[in-house]
Structure formats: structure tokens, C-alpha cells
């Protein structure tokens, strides 16, 4: 808002379909349309597969994959109706490659990648661009809670992710980037 734009915040549990539908509806009511949708909600956890509880499995899949599905579906419907838009899903390098102890989280992020690719194909006919950003260790509370031994200073800045979102959202109408991998300098994956 300090830069002359408009902003609003609405707390939403993306794993709850009715809350997501309300979020999109209220956004359109307030601004008249939905031009850019960034799906960034996510949780980590699970650990080793044999030690993962069904509750942890459900929590991770419900937030990461089901939540992204609900947001994409509601946003896509609105963008189709208005003649276009941009959907950006924040996935992870864990959506491209898996490691021991990341099975459920990685499965949720692989699902987001498949959802993104499919929706990108569907969206072309309606001028809806769909992309995924796959960061590798962002300096945030989510990664701080993970078992990975990376010092905060070696992690990707949230501002770098935000700049990538802005870049994807403002590309010309005939260009779409399907996937961006943001890696840490010196990463060994």
C-alpha cells in the first residue's frame, strides 16, 4: 500500500474447501477480479515413512496438496470466467527429487508439480498461465523446523522467492515459465 497498491489479508485454512471458496469470492468482490494467485501454504513433517503417523500424512497432504488443489480450482474458475490470469504454485525441490525422511512431504510436492503441469495445459486455451517455483531451503520458520542441517545464512531469502513470483506474474502475455528451481549456492542435492 505504501507503493500505491492495494492489499488485504484474510486468514484461510486452505485444507477447507469452503474457506478457499470464500477467500476467492471475497477477493473478487473487493477488487473486481483475480489476476494473480500465489499458492504458498505448506507444512513439513512426517519423517521416516515407517515412523509417520496417519495423522501426519493427512495433515501434510491436506495442507500442501489438497489446499493447492482447492485454491487452483477456485482461482482457475474465476480466471476462466474473466478471460485470463496467472497461478503460481510454490512447490519445492522436494517436488523434483526425494530424500530419506522426506517421503510424505516430497509426495505432496510431487503432487503439486503434477497438478501444476496439468493445469498449465488446461489453462492455455483460457489465457491462464500456471507456473511452479521450487525453492531449496528458504530462510523461514518452515525450514528452520526441518531436520536439514543448513545454517540460516546459507538459505534462500524469502525476498528472492517473492522477486521470482513478481517476475513470473509480470511476464508478457505470450510467455509462460513452467518451472523455476531456486537453489542455494553450494547446494549438494
Question: What does it look like?
Answer:
This protein has a single domain (17-182), classed as Rossmann fold, CATH 3.40.50.720. The chain is built from 5 helices and 4 strands; from the N terminus they run αβαβαβααβ. It has helices at 17-31, 54-82, 103-123, 141-144, 158-169, and strands at 36-39, 85-90, 128-135, 179-182. The protein has a 4-stranded parallel beta sheet with strand order 1-2-3-4, sandwiched between helices. Helix 2 (54-82) packs parallel to helix 3. The relative contact order is 0.14.
Main β-sheet description: 4 strands, parallel
| Separate helix tally | 5
Write down the Rg: 17 Å
Q: What is the general shape? A: globular
- What's the CATH topology label? Rossmann fold
**Beta-strand share of residues:** 5-15%
CATH class: Alpha Beta
Overall pLDDT metric: 89
N-to-C series of helices and strands:
HEHEHEHHE
Low-confidence residue ranges: none
Helix content: 40-55%
Extended strand count: 4
Tally of distinct domains: 1
- Return the CATH architecture: 3-Layer(aba) Sandwich
Measured distance between first and last alpha carbons: 39 Å
Quickly give the structural class: alpha/beta
- Corresponding CATH superfamily: NAD(P)-binding Rossmann-like Domain
Strand order of the largest sheet: 1-2-3-4
Amino acid at each position: 500500500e505504501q507503493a500505491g497498491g492495494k492489499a488485504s489479508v484474510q486468514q484461510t485454512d486452505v485444507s477447507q474447501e469452503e474457506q478457499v471458496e470464500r477467500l476467492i469470492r471475497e477477493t473478487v468482490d473487493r477488487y473486481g477480479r483475480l489476476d494473480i494467485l500465489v499458492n504458498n501454504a505448506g507444512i513439513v513433517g512426517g519423517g521416516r515413512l515407517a515412523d509417520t503417523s496417519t495423522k501426519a500424512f493427512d495433515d501434510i497432504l491436506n495442507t500442501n496438496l489438497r489446499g493447492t488443489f482447492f485454491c487452483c480450482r477456485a482461482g482457475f474458475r474465476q480466471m476462466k470466467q474473466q478471460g485470463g490470469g496467472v497461478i503460481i504454485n510454490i512447490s519445492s525441490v522436494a517436488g523434483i527429487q526425494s530424500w530419506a525422511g522426506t517421503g510424505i512431504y516430497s509426495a505432496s510436492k510431487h503432487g503439486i508439480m503434477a497438478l501444476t503441469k496439468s493445469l498449465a495445459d488446461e489453462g492455455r486455451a483460457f489465457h491462464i498461465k500456471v507456473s511452479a517455483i521450487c525453492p531449496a531451503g528458504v530462510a523461514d520458520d518452515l525450514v528452520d523446523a526441518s531436520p536439514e542441517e543448513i545454517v540460516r545464512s546459507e538459505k534462500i531469502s524469502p525476498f528472492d522467492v517473492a522477486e521470482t513470483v513478481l517476475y513470473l506474474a509480470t511476464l508478457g502475455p505470450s510467455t509462460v515459465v513452467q518451472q523455476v528451481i531456486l537453489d542455494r549456492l553450494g547446494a549438494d542435492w
